[in-house]
Amino acid sequence: MNRHFWIPIGVAALCVLLTAPWWVVRAAGGGGGFDGVVNSIESRYHQRAMRIPFMGLASVVAGAATHGGVDCVRVAEFEHFSAPVDGEELNRMVEERLGQGWERMIRETSRHGGEQTMIFSHPDGKRMGLFIVDLDGAELNVVQVSVDADRLNETIIKYKHHDHDDEHTSE
Amino acid sequence: MKHRVAAIILGTAALVAPALAQPSPSPLPLPSPVEKQLAARAANVTEVTLGKGMLDFAARFMDNNDKDQVAVKQLIEGLDGIYVRDYEFDKEGEYSMDQLEQLRQAFGTPEWTPMVHEHESKSGESTDVMMKMINGEPQGIFVLDAEPKELTIVLILGPIRLDQLSELKGLSGLGGLGALGDAAKDKPGKDKASKDKTDDKAKKEGTQ
Question: What are residue B128's DSSP bridge partners?
Fold first, then answer.
């Protein structure tokens, strides 16, 4: 009886111990990469991101459809984003959370309007990681994607040729 | 022994800490404080920083069967970087002549040759175009366009052919450079284009 009582308690305690760092990091808006950026935005602006259902599946489908041209798609959407945003602060926060290896490629910021766009790139062998933060009015989107230019280009050319063929047959 | 280990750790930390504390160098060879001051005062800021890696990546999307895209590919593949900064201000006087001078001075080295310096005292607009020449070959171009409520900086590093610049028209913010490329195309020779502009500059300096 005694053993039966302690086993579930022990398992529960172990689970708490193992997940504690994750909860601490999340509560502090910490961590790196995509989740780190989204968590930081959530905790700094007190807004909740909408996670898109089956995004993992969509990412796998995108990868298969483009033969690996587009992969690791992650999207977080903040709707009704009403908090005032200081572009410089947002930029600093995103840069800190993304960590080393990411370079800002494009930044467009307006002091008055709620418009902020940042695109970061991360070369990774043949692939290029792209990280986009876009605030347009009351909607803020965070997107991460990994692109293989050669494979994606092959797919684009393939569909371009299909398009041309369709045009010729319709004529 | 313990003291020795502690001394080694502290010594290493003292050596490493300043290196770690240093901010990563800006890819744009502009005076960083000026860039920050301008960004802080501007109502709208646009920054485009395309390093060699990104340009090579973009070049891979160009269609080899399209003549125009092949030309753009050839141009951007050799480049080391394209940097654009555009600052829009709410009112006039948000940037000083001193700041403009600091930006010009960043390119005041012997390898940078002023090609165009235009100043309209009535409107307060000015345009500077400088070319980086190494062994007689253009290896970079710097454009500084100042309007009372807008300041635009374009820097292209790497081997440049002026007649190819017009191919960059399609790239946002680089349309003006395309016009420069067109001007070079219209001239019978590259040297003449450069000379004409230098002559203009000399005339303007003479009248000032």
Answer: B117, B144
